Inverse folding.
């Protein structure tokens, strides 16, 4: 058994109350989340994994001391990264996700009966197992779902014209995650899509990750005829506002058939939100007019 390392991101105040901190160096901002209980902690071969019960966000997955998703607001991220590309494509059969080991995106994709194959590529098997144990214990099984525990960069290189929709839930561009921001990765993604395929990337905060968002768009535009950024508000994340960038070989999300949107039991996305999310503030529009 590997030696347990000190918990990253956690601290106790003078009253003995446990907090977890999320520090954003670009914004010089720290957000503290009050913790009711530390439910689980381990060091996997890849990272520190914690499951905590928090006051404001319910149960939360924490990786290397950084909050990732919570039971109270996780539906927002999951709905917006999945429904928009799926609905934009007129008839998706095969979809895949890199990252998202909690399978939130996959659960949203399961709402579309026409989808025949749902693959989730997650490097750390323990993330998937612990999320199933602590965050989504009531999840049922879907025969269309396949878990693939591999490095997403290595996996995508082997895919050629395989998927109609890809969702890239990549981590921050540090350590091994840097590979998922390289120009060659975008080319591998393009090659992995079918002739009319669509991909969506999480592209960071449009406020304090502006260089990430700008570079994402600038890397995608030479490859795809359609490239559109859309915004979402996620309370868990510092500053709240977050971005996704969709790139398509053929279809424009602003022309999507919104009657297909499976929003009967969603909590965030509606046909109106689908379209409104593409209306960008002027300062975000201007990011794409600047040089990377």
């Amino acid at each position: 058994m590997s030696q347990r390392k000190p918990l990253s991101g956690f601290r106790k105040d003078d009253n003995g109350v446990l907090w977890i901190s999320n520090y954003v160096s670009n914004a010089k901002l720290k957000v503290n989340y009050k913790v009711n209980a530390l439910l689980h902690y381990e060091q996997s071969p890849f990272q520190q994994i914690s499951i905590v019960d928090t006051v404001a966000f319910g149960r939360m997955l924490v990786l290397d001391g950084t909050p990732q998703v919570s039971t109270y607001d996780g539906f927002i991220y999951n709905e917006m990264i999945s429904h928009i590309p799926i609905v934009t494509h007129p008839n998706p059969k095969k979809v895949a996700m890199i990252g998202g080991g909690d399978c939130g995106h996959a659960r949203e994709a399961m709402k579309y009966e026409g989808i025949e194959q749902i693959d989730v590529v997650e490097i750390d098997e323990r993330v998937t197992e612990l999320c199933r144990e602590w965050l989504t214990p009531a999840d049922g099984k879907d025969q269309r779902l396949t878990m693939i525990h591999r490095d997403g960069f290595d996996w995508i290189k082997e895919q050629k014209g395989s998927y109609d929709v890809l969702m890239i839930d990549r981590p921050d561009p540090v350590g091994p995650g840097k590979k998922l921001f390289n120009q060659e990765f975008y080319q591998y993604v393009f090659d992995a899509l079918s002739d009319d395929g669509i991909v969506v990337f999480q592209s960071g905060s449009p406020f304090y990750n502006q260089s990430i968002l700008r570079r994402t768009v600038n890397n995608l535009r030479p490859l795809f005829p359609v490239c559109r950024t859309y915004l979402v508000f996620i309370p868990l994340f510092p500053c709240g506002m977050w971005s996704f960038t969709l790139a398509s070989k053929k279809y424009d999300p602003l022309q999507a058939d919104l009657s297909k949107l499976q929003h009967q039991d969603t909590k965030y996305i509606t046909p109106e939100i689908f379209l409104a999310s593409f209306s960008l503030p002027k300062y975000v529009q201007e990011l794409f007019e600047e040089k990377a």
